[in-house]
Specification:
By secondary structure, the protein is α/β, with parallel strands linked by helices. The strands form 3 sheets. It has a 9-stranded mixed beta sheet with strand order 2-3-7-4-6-5-9-10-11, with helices on both faces. A 4-stranded parallel beta sheet has the order 12-15-13-14.
């Protein structure tokens, strides 16, 4: 029996009773629990097999709610929140005393965002608590962008996936922290760098850290298929290195016209947003074909292409 449901009231009841519910956002599906329930938060970590040193993102219903979870909002943080919330941006700010250390990996900062999905915004407005919601996948695996992805991962471990359809943006939020009041990117994501810099000016990037990471998504290996994956500039040259192998190919917009491989084109029109939206679902699909290798084409290093390359690089890290 499917655990996928559109019943928001059932989700409210489960979350209020300290259970986990997978929720839709515009980025990926999240595995959500009450931030003030130690039982629920421990369940998130154990269900995902996620290490406790990796902090969680807190989801809130509005910009105005931010002052309930943080002690200080830098001027540029306010500019960013006003510009991009609800949306695919997470801010890492000084937390207040109410926020449990379990969520923040003992740090004095908390990662917060207002998701841009009507179903989850409706859910958040009906709850008396915010939700912690890392991606609804086993730690390190491909993130889920459809209810079926979550069900395949966790059917026996959670009671409900709140159905909000396929995720529009398809890769995780961009995470921005603050050092000396200045913004710094901790994770590239669905909000392009150029859009951020248009609001706050030039911004530094520090998006890889294996030990004691400031934010989620900073580990070198993440978002990875089970199938061995390579990220390359020249797909045809890479193909020659894998003779007699069953190969899947993931390209941006131009077919390699090779009938001997399983090929997925992420956007035939060459639209970055469409490619990002299709990325994880395509990796899920290729992972079901029992291939020997997946060869992914590197994207142009601009706009969302930079974020897509970041995800593919982490998927291929050995």
């Amino acid at each position: 029996m499917s655990i996928i449901s559109k019943d928001i009231q059932k989700a409210v009841q489960l979350l209020t009773n300290e259970q986990l519910v997978a929720i839709p956002t515009e980025t990926v599906y999240g595995l959500a629990g009450n931030i003030f329930s130690e039982k629920a938060i421990n369940s998130i970590f154990s269900t995902k097999k996620r290490p406790f040193f990796n902090p969680l993102i807190v989801h809130i219903p509005s910009v105005e709610f931010l002052e309930n979870v943080v002690t200080h909002i830098p001027k540029k943080a306010k500019l960013l929140a006003d510009a991009f919330w609800p949306g695919s941006m997470t801010l890492v700010l000084k937390k207040n005393r109410k926020i449990p250390d379990l969520i923040t990996a003992g740090k004095d900062t908390v990662a917060v965002r207002v998701p841009n999905h009507p179903v989850t915004l409706s859910l958040l407005r009906q709850l008396s608590f915010p939700l912690a919601a890392p991606s609804a996948n086993p730690f390190g695996s491909i993130s889920p962008t459809k209810p079926s992805h979550v069900e395949n991962y966790f059917k026996n471990d959670i009671q409900m996936v709140l159905d909000g359809g396929a995720c529009k943006n398809g890769i995780e939020s961009t995470i921005i922290g603050f050092e000396n009041e200045e913004p710094i990117i901790y994770r590239l994501g669905a909000l392009p760098l150029e859009d951020i810099e248009a609001v706050v000016g030039k911004i530094a990037i520090k998006n890889k850290k294996e030990q004691n990471p400031e934010a989620p998504g900073m580990l070198a290996r993440h978002y990875a298929p089970k199938t061995k994956t390579f990220l390359v500039n020249d797909v045809l040259s890479e193909l020659k290195k894998h003779p007699n192998k069953k190969i899947g190919v993931l390209v941006f917009k131009d077919s390699i016209n090779n009938d001997s491989v399983t090929e997925i084109i992420l956007s035939e029109k060459g639209v970055m947003q469409e490619a990002a939206s299709n990325l994880y679902n395509s990796l899920h699909l290729l992972d079901t074909y029992h291939l020997d290798v997946i060869i992914a084409e590197r994207f142009p290093e601009n706009g969302l292409g930079t974020s897509i390359n970041d995800r593919l690089q982490r998927a291929t890290f050995a």
